[in-house]
Design brief:
This protein is of the alpha+beta class and 341 residues long. It has two domains: 193 residues, Lipoprotein localisation LolA/LolB/LppX (outer membrane lipoprotein receptor (LolB), chain A); 92 residues, no CATH class. It has an eleven-stranded antiparallel sheet, with helices on both faces. A seven-stranded antiparallel sheet has the order 12-13-14-18-17-16-15, with helices on one face. Strand 9 and strand 10 form a beta hairpin.
Length: 341
Amino acid sequence: MKKKFIGILGLLVTIVAIAFNLSACREMSKDDVVDQLISDLETLESYLASGSLAINVDDQKYIYDITVAFDGEERIKISLKNEAGDEQLIVRKDGDVYILTPDLNKMFKLQSDWPWTGSHVYLYQSLLADILNADGETIVFESTETAYVFTIPTAYMHTNDELVEQIMHFDRKLLTPTLVEVRDNAGVARVTMEFAEFKLNHEFLDAEFDIDAIMELALDVMGDNEIEELTFGYPNNVFGMEVIADEIFNLEDGQRKIISLGDDTRVATLIQETRSSEPLMNIQIQNGGIVLVSGETFVYAYNDDVTIVQTLDGRKSAVSRDFTSRELAIMVASIEPFEEK
């Protein structure tokens, strides 16, 4: 009788285990996944993520190793390192945003709402917000062997209209992002973020977000770098515009060259500086966004209608209401090499 009871008990345990496994392996619907993502977002405290970010611009591919440290909305650090090993960091701390460029031994402090002013493929909560804010009828949901996949219209601000679709892959077990693609009208991936590691509820040390400590460590790794002296020049790519004005102004510690370009419908202003002290263009941005365009240029969107492009050393920039950020970035980049006319 005892053996029979033990046998029945073992059978019941087996049945319960099978039922539990079947429940655990139950296929989640789109609504199930979204509900779980909402729950995860509400309880999110911190995470550490790393991976590879690829940006395709005009048949050129820029690849960065990226690390994201998130420890609450006022402690965020993004590290981007290109294939040459040059590192750039963006840090949000206590309401301020810092752009650190160790290779130039420069640090910029901005008043900005970054990263909450736009969508970012490398930020977990930004991806979840994109899904939750998308029109339900526009969301395409797919389940694969390894991931739940959401395809939605892009939610990017201050970018060109060619980027139309964002595809996000979430791990089936952890519901953490594994792959994000932003595609253009032709279905080509223009931005790809591939996550190699993602740790939720990671514990950070205070030094991780100490601006001076971050800069000191980066400089120790990179060594001393001298900034090459800047001379004035003209852009090689001006999108068919002509020079309207070309002036040089004397500063206390250098000079500033302003070139106005335009045609019948568009005007852009290019600014170059040679200075022995800090760059002048330390822009205080209110209600604006920061978008990394390439390894050398940042784009600022100001009041939703003015785009400002600035190189990381702050000595070349462009301002316009008529051009996309990509076009302005191309114009600024094409100023090199500098050739006097």
